[in-house]
């Protein structure tokens, strides 16, 4: 099968097997031995060495972030740099919470991302299902209209949306960070992915439900939606991360510290002269990054598949 | 067919309701798409129309002015050296990003396709920055790139006097590009990996028997076969590169001077620093036109690519 690099990847039927596209390559053992001739040992060693060198800029920043956050100010910029703190100090972590309402900001990011994810899954699977399965007059026109949302970068509409939010008196509230992503442009990609999935779902499954007297809603809730787990997982992962990482909108809409979200809060650890307080900033950054990285390591397969779609969008 | 938890409760229905089943189905269809359609209208279509309307106005929030000014903002754009610089910065950023991102993604994908030991671990390494918060990633790189930061620290340990990366125009732009490349190259790598694994092994084998070396096979077989993916990924990377904002704001603040003030950052400055909402709207329209043009090119090439495949 040729791999189909269009944003249709989770279109496979609802088996537990992940779809082929953009998935991790098959494990080494899966491949017939004759498939590829082995290179000489020396060449293979050289290639592995190259991979190790190439890994440095991907792995080292995270290592450097975590270890530097444990260094006292006297050590953090020392030359030559120390790869592991000579005396481990947790003071920066205490400062993270002392200087800003960091726990509150953490909670803000978390609850906003959870609401946006849940809302997007609901809106996108409903719309995706209807566009894939129900024929109603004007369906194509409406679908093209919705797809237009993918053409419009958030930056293009930030001025009119700012004015709208301002008129509604919702500046410095979380409403625009929750409502706009759920119903607006960011959820369009999710709708598209859900539609592709439902298009690939065998109609016979629904026919059986219809025979048993289920209504359209019943078919959706009891048959189609539960089968859409792989697509929902993909949508959930990229939606959550997108909300968790949102930066432009928070700095435009929010102005008081207790309302800040994490990406915005991270940039606020500066001293009286505007210079960054490195160890505190890196401690806060570590607290932001490590949980997501941990979940990624556990559910790597789903992450890679889920995020491959967003790469397609750009 | 499936052993999923699909509990189907039979329901009896009268013949009267069954007559209008198709009509009810249509209503359900409208109800299901309504949230997304209305949301798109409210948060995409209407703002798009209003931003075009605003762009025809002299609108300064601070001064409280909002007067129709025709094409004045567009004439101002033509004469604005700041905008010209921003377009140039965007162009450099996009070119640098695409070249570095696509070639590195291709290199990584090819290396991961060699069935070397530890491939899975390396794939995890290369992909991991994708899930790291962009601002967090940028902060760490900012720390590394400080004049007295980690990179110059290690260089000093080797006896090299490193430049002040973020304080001179060319290296600052390079830094912003490199930070973005390492952040997201894992995504393109996965797309290339999928394309590489779809290249039929028999073709490779045939070329091998004909005596073609590894590089020759890559150039004459693999690359042409995956070139549609390369093209697609390149265009998508360009479109994505136009939206770069957080890295610039955190790493350089558009400086030094305005050397890293790309189009989106210029738009942000005009609107939210200088309160020039009318002029910012005109820049928004320009940004939209550029993205639209690139997307149309992408669609055309994708169509052609599909034909090639059949």
From TrEMBL, chain A:
Q: What's the family?
A: Belongs to the binding-protein-dependent transport system permease family.
**Which domain of life does this protein belong to?**
Bacteria
Which residues are in the ABC transmembrane type-1 domain?
A: 106-299
Q: What parts of the sequence cross the membrane?
A: 45-66, 110-132, 139-162, 174-198, 219-241, 278-299
Source organism of this protein record = Isoptericola halotolerans
Q: Which keywords accompany this UniProt record?
A: Cell membrane, Membrane, Sugar transport, Transmembrane, Transmembrane helix, Transport
Any coiled-coil ranges, and where?
A: none
> Record's SUPFAM superfamilies?
MetI-like (SSF161098)
Q: State the name under which the record lists this protein.
A: Multiple sugar transport system permease protein
The way it spans or sits in the membrane comes to: Multi-pass membrane protein
Provide the residue span(s) of the region labelled Disordered.
1-33
Task: Mention any Pfam family matching this sequence.
Answer: BPD_transp_1
Q: What is its main location?
A: membrane
From the Swiss-Prot or TrEMBL record, state where the protein is found.
Answer: Cell membrane
From TrEMBL, chain B:
Reading the lineage from the top rank, the first entry is Bacteria
One short Pfam name that applies is BPD_transp_1
Keyword vocabulary terms for this entry: Cell membrane, Membrane, Sugar transport, Transmembrane, Transmembrane helix, Transport
Q: Does the keyword Transmembrane apply?
A: yes
Q: Which CDD domains match?
A: TM_PBP2
How does the record classify its membrane topology? Multi-pass membrane protein
Region ranges (Disordered): 1-20
Protein location: Cell membrane
Task: List residues of the ABC transmembrane type-1 domain.
Answer: 87-298
Task: Establish whether keyword Membrane is in the entry.
Answer: yes
The record lists the membrane-crossing segments as 27-54, 91-112, 124-145, 165-182, 225-248, 277-297
Q: Which family does it belong to?
A: Belongs to the binding-protein-dependent transport system permease family.
Please state what the protein is called: Multiple sugar transport system permease protein
Organism of derivation: Isoptericola halotolerans
């Amino acid at each position: 099968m040729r791999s189909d690099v269009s944003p249709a990847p989770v279109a496979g039927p609802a088996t537990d097997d992940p779809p082929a596209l953009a998935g991790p390559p098959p494990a080494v053992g899966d491949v017939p031995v004759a498939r590829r001739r082995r290179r000489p040992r020396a060449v293979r060693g050289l290639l592995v060495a190259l991979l190790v060198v190439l890994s440095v800029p991907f792995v080292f920043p995270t290592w450097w972030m975590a270890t530097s956050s444990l260094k006292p100010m006297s050590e953090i910029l020392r030359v030559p740099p120390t790869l592991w703190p000579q005396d481990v100090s947790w003071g920066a972590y205490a400062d993270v919470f002392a200087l800003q309402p960091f726990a509150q900001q953490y909670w803000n990011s978390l609850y906003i991302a959870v609401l946006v994810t849940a809302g997007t899954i609901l809106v996108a699977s409903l719309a995706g299902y209807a566009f894939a399965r129900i024929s109603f007059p004007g369906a194509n026109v409406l679908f093209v209209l919705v797809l237009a949302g993918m053409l419009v970068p958030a930056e293009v509409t930030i001025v009119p949306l700012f004015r709208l939010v301002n008129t509604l008196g919702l500046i410095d509230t979380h409403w625009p960070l929750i409502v706009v992503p759920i119903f607006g442009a960011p959820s369009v990609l999710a709708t598209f992915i859900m539609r592709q999935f439902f298009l690939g779902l065998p109609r016979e499954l629904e026919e059986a439900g219809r025979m048993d007297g289920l209504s359209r809603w019943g078919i959706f809730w009891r048959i189609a939606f539960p089968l859409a787990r792989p697509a929902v997982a993909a949508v959930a992962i990229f939606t959550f991360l997108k909300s968790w990482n949102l930066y432009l909108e928070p700095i435009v809409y929010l102005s008081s510290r207790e309302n800040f979200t994490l990406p915005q809060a991270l940039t606020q650890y500066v001293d009286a002269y505007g210079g960054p307080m490195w160890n505190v900033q890196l401690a806060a950054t570590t607290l932001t990054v490590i949980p997501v990285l941990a979940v990624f390591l556990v559910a790597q397969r789903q992450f890679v598949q889920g995020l491959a779609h967003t790469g397609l969008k750009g | 067919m499936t052993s999923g938890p699909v509990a189907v409760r039979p329901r009896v229905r009268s013949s009267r309701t069954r007559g209008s089943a198709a009509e009810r189905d249509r209503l359900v269809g409208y109800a299901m798409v309504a949230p997304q359609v209305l949301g798109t209208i409210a948060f995409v279509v209407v703002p798009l129309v209003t931003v075009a309307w605003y762009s025809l106005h002299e609108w300064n929030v601070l001064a409280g002015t909002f007067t129709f000014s025709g094409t004045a903002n567009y004439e101002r754009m033509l004469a604005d050296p700041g905008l010209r610089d921003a377009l140039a910065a965007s162009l450099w950023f996009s070119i640098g990003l695409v070249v570095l991102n696509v070639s590195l993604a291709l290199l990584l994908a090819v290396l991961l396709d060699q069935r070397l030991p530890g491939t899975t671990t390396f794939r995890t390494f290369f992909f991991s920055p994708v899930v790291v918060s962009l601002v967090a990633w940028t902060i760490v790189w900012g720390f590394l790139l400080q004049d007295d930061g980690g990179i110059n620290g290690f260089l000093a340990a080797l006896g090299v006097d490193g430049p002040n990366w973020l304080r001179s125009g060319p290296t600052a732009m390079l830094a912003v590009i490199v930070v973005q490349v390492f952040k997201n190259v894992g995504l393109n790598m996965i797309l290339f990996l999928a394309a590489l694994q779809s290249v039929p092994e028999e073709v490779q084998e045939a070329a091998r028997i004909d005596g073609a070396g590894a590089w020759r096979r890559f150039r004459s077989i693999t690359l042409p076969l995956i070139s549609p993916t390369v093209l697609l990924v390149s265009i998508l990377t360009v479109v994505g590169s136009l939206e770069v904002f957080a890295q610039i704001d955190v790493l350089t603040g558009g400086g030094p001077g305005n050397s890293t003030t790309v189009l989106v950052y210029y738009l942000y400055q005009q609107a939210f620093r200088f309160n020039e909402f009318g002029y910012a709207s005109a820049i928004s329209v320009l940004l939209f036109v550029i993205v639209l043009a690139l997307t149309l090119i992408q669609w055309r090439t994708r169509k052609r690519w599909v034909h090639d495949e059949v």
